[in-house]
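Methods — Computational structure assignment.
A single polypeptide chain was analysed. Its primary sequence is given first, followed by the predicted tertiary structure written as structure tokens.
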Amino acid sequence: MSIESSTDRTEEALARIAPVAGVLSAGMTAAGTLTIGPFPDGSTPAGDLPGFYAAHGSHVALGGTLLVLGTVCFAIFAAAVWARVRSAGVPLVLGGIVLLGAAVQTVSDLQSGAVYRLLGQIGVDRHVTPEALQAWHIWGSEFGVGGGTTLFLLGVAAAGIAYRAIPRWLAWAGLLLAITPFTPFGFLGSLIFVLWVGLAGVALSIRPGLPDRRPDAVSASVG
């Protein structure tokens, strides 16, 4: 077996397996969100929060853990998307946008999951005042524009529409999702993005889109 043949098989296996992390990410994110359940908004009086966490603190902490695991899977999925974009001859700037957006979103989601884990733990701690708990609770319950998701989706959309790096239906759907954080449908868009990641994981795993081998490649035989 040649070294190049072995390398090609390894690349093909990784190209098929790595995108599946998107399915795991979607599943764990959905499970984490459902485990946390109905969550009081940021305007909830401080005096009401200790009672909520006394009843649901363990669920919030577990949900936060699942969200962290889902984010780790998203990072693997995003790396697979970036590798596919890079191998498709897309301009470096678009590949950079995809990679930067994925990194920003990963950090943001890891932090969000960690906050939920912290809230589940300190929410039942009698030494934490309601006012201090409320400060952390507002951080967990309110969110702003998802800049990382927008960058990632814009880069992926451009790579798919202009260069066919990914299936065009995924690219167009990603483009629409990229603008939802700036509309009143931002929360709905974030939920659909989870579904998009899962579907993209399946689609890219079925069709890994490996570049063709160059005809002038020379195999280095072993033994």
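Note: Residues 210-223 have pLDDT under 50 and may be disordered.
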